[in-house]
Design brief:
With 146 residues, this protein is mostly helical. The chain has helices at 3-12, 16-28, 36-48, 52-64, 72-84, 88-100, 108-120, 125-145. The protein is built from 8 helices and no strands. The protein starts with a helix and ends with a helix. The relative contact order is 0.09.
Length: 146
């Protein structure tokens, strides 16, 4: 039995790591034919087992409509699940969703909260987002006081 068959069998049996590996391959078309719907199914199995990266990847799929219909609110739910489990990139993406009002009410305060969480978890891009958000807030404050 070759490695790909073994991976498929392990994923079919619900092995979380196999589901994640197969899902990534299906998403990118590496070693297998690209299949977004199957990738999302693999991530769903892993997410049900509590895998943070699965929630993150599902959230990105829902945001873009990859393998499913676009579902910004569903994306925010998935990203929040991942971020609450310590996923730094999910916290960063969640901050952007709140800042832009995509799938959630627009809120710079909540965006800043998630950017700070991402930064605390080592996501270096979050520092730039916090700085940009602070500058935006300062400019808005100056415009309203003039």
């Amino acid at each position: 039995m070759d490695r790909d068959e073994n991976l498929e069998q392990r994923a079919a049996a619900g092995d979380v790591q196999a589901c994640m590996q197969l899902g990534r391959r299906l998403l990118r078309g590496r070693g297998v034919e690209r299949n977004y719907e199957r990738a999302l199914g693999c991530f769903d199995v892993a997410a049900k087992a509590g895998e943070p990266d699965a929630f993150y990847l599902m959230g990105k799929c829902y945001l873009k409509g990859v393998g499913c219909r676009k579902d910004p609110a569903g994306a925010v739910c998935c990203l929040e699940n991942a971020a609450r489990r310590g996923h730094a990139s999910a916290a960063l993406k969640l901050g952007a969703c709140f800042e832009q009002g995509v799938g959630a009410p627009q809120s710079d305060e909540i965006a800043a909260y998630w950017y700070r969480k991402a930064a605390a978890r080592g996501e270096t891009r979050a520092y730039d987002e916090l700085l940009r958000l602070a500058r935006k807030s300062r400019i808005n404050t100056l415009e309203h006081s003039a």
